[in-house]
Amino acid sequence: SGSSGEQPCRSGSVTARGRVYAPAITASYGEMCYHDNSLVSASLEALIQHLVPTVDYYPDRSYVFTFLLSSRLFLHPYELMTRVCHLCVEQQRSGDALLDKIRLREVAPKLVQLLTEWTETFPYDFRDERMMRCLKDMTHLVARGDEFSWRAMQQMSQRLIKRLSALGQYEEAVAALSAVALERPAALKSKQASGQRSDILSVCDDAFVLAQQLTHIELDRLSFIGPEEFIQTFAMKDPLENHKGFFRKRKTSNLEAYVNWFNRLSYLVATEICLPVKKKHRARMIEFFIDVAQECFNIGNFNSLMAIITGMNMSPVARLKKTWNKVNTDKFEILEHQMDPSSNFSNYRTALRGATQRSETAHSSQEKIVIPFFSLLIKDIYFLNEGCATRLPNGHINFEKLWELAKQVSEFLVWRQVICPFERDRRILQYLVTTPVFTEDELHLASYDSEGPENNLEKDSRRSLRSSLLHRE
Q1: How far apart are CA 430 and CA 270, in angstroms?
Q2: Of 48, 185, 195, 366, whose CB neighbour count within 10 A is largest?
Q3: What segment(s) does the record annotate as region Disordered (predicted)?
Q4: What DSSP state is assigned to residue 391?
């Protein structure tokens, strides 16, 4: 049976659909336990068996996604694939070669459908060559039974190779961009030399256009995060995984690259504000970023919005009181209120719900955009995992928890597939991802150069920063 009890139950002849349940009825079929027609717990063996298609059964799609997503908490994707493929073939064996061939032909399209869902939703699992070998073996097997299914397997493999090649190129590009951004030109070493460096306003002085380019970067980077990366952040803590190279080799690199982008944007904002020598230029820069943040909010790009607010609230920027006095901060205060962390970010969550509803009924691709405040999304999934046992006292897997994890991750998948509707501006994009930014120490020093230390504590801080940065050069 599937998550909603739509499929026939596979223990005995009773079907979940055929029963009329009273409210809150719990039913057990062998190793699987249901509550109100929804699967709530089962043994790992039963869950694997439940994933295996037969001639007259195919698992519910939401079950396929949920189990493929969370199974990596219990076993390596390669082990799961080997077992599923083995079971699928074994179940068709009758001892009669002709009958076996007929059965294989009948089950082949369903096996292809399952492998298609797997390769399209979790393509990164197939960076493991054992997974690719297994896929090749299944292609040979299917070829014996049914030419149509064999062709479908060939097309699926081609799509998978294309996706993995795009991923490899993306990861190389991100690494190259990080390397460029780490080069520290002399123009950034001191505030006095900052005149040699172009600032954001010389590249783009239109807040709406900048917000659009930020949205390009966000959606590009989101599109390469595999849904399994959310689960692998805590799968790695499982002692069972210590000896397996899979999680060490490719844990959560695209998820981490995305978090690094948030930090970079915050530091870029702080750098742009602290660099100008003149107070009126710094004030103009603050006003510009407030406008950009507002445009990000209007677009539904909450991640860039939060990164900009974070950059403006860094202490080197926040302490520039004379500069802030020249700025009308009404709009900024409203935006801060929207992203206020109190009551577990309740204002932001309301705004996110609004953006999600707008996205569901969207008439244009721009209305579809929802880019969540990403660190909070990770935190929510982390606490959902931590706050609830994965295994029950009887050794069964708590499938209710896995449904919840899958619900959060599948929402992210919908947001991830939006194609950015705005025109790309290469010059602005290049500036945003490669222009060098100050480190925390350099920011503090630039801030003191803008508005001198106000007390002895700040004077001491400036002195020690100067000497430590001098030694570093």
Answers
A1: 18
A2: 48
A3: 449-473
A4: B
